[in-house]
Amino acid sequence: MTDYHTTYKGQEGETTEWDDIQAKHGNKPAKDPVWKPDTYAPEEEEPKKDESYLDTKDADELEELEDDFADDRFLEDYRRKRIEELKKGTTRPRFGTLETIRASEFVAQVTNAGEGVWVVCHLFKDAVNDCGILNACLGELSERYHNTKFLKIISTECIPGYPDENLPTVLLYHNTKCVHTFVGLAAVGGKATSPDRVAMALNCYGPVCGDSEQDAQEQVRNMVESLLVERAAAEAAKGQGGRAGGGGGEDDDEDSDFY
């Protein structure tokens, strides 16, 4: 009679209680752990490389992507344009308004405004009429020249006891240093001043109002030409309508000092 023997085997790596006892006492080597495949994790989709993708990159990252867009003329042109914009700093305005600050903010906002940043800080009081004239001019300039920071602060909050007769006062800062101090409205064109006159006064000390890459003296010359045309028109109007009224007054003296 044939003797049949059946042997049962568990799953790979599976042990019996007897195996575990023998392994514990060192009578039998422990079985190697069962190999298991890594848990499946879907790969992250690569972001679509279009205009919005390029907008998230800085100039250095865009330079590294040159080969990625060699076959796409539109995106390659867009990439190059973005690099030029970033290098020129024209992608978005840095400032653009005349902001009011407090004394506790002066060091951060004015002294430490950033490397290469021009800061125009107006010490003012609402009760002084000349301060209102200058605030209007600075507000317009802030909308024109977004790379220059235009600020204002109450004079006695900035400098306790600062005399009202010195108002308006303008502090011009660049690279942590006060480049110049304008005291009184006469220093920036007098009571008949305008945004262009204020800009011309500021630009005597650097490219405060205008393209930083343009020569500061050229900017001043352009503004002088504009102001001369403005002044000639004003003189012509005065000659036609006000000859019977006599000569000029105090404001004319202030303006003549500015020129």
Can you offer a commentary on this structure?
This protein starts with 16 loop residues before the first helix and ends with a helix. It has helices at 17-24, 51-55, 59-64, 73-88, 106-111, 129-144, 155-158, 195-203, 216-241, 250-258, and strands spanning 98-100, 118-124, 149-154, 169-174, 177-183. The chain is an alpha/beta fold. Strand 4 and strand 5 form a beta hairpin. Among the domains are: 51-88, no CATH class; 98-239, Glutaredoxin, CATH 3.40.30.10. Strands 1-3-2-4-5 form a five-stranded mixed beta sheet.
Quick summary:
With 259 residues, the protein is α/β, with parallel strands linked by helices.
Low-confidence stretches: 247-259
Q: What is the chain-wise order of helices and strands?
A: HHHHEHEHEHEEHHH
CATH topology of the domain at 98-239: Glutaredoxin
What is the CATH superfamily of the domain at 98-239?
Answer: Glutaredoxin
Count of DSSP helices? 10
Query: If classified by CATH, what would the architecture of the domain at 98-239 be?
Result: 3-Layer(aba) Sandwich
Report the sheet-strand fraction: 5-15%
Biggest β-sheet strands, sense, barrel: 5 strands, mixed
Radius of gyration: 37 Å
> How many strands?
5
The helix fraction, in percent, is: 40-55%
* Coarse morphology: elongated
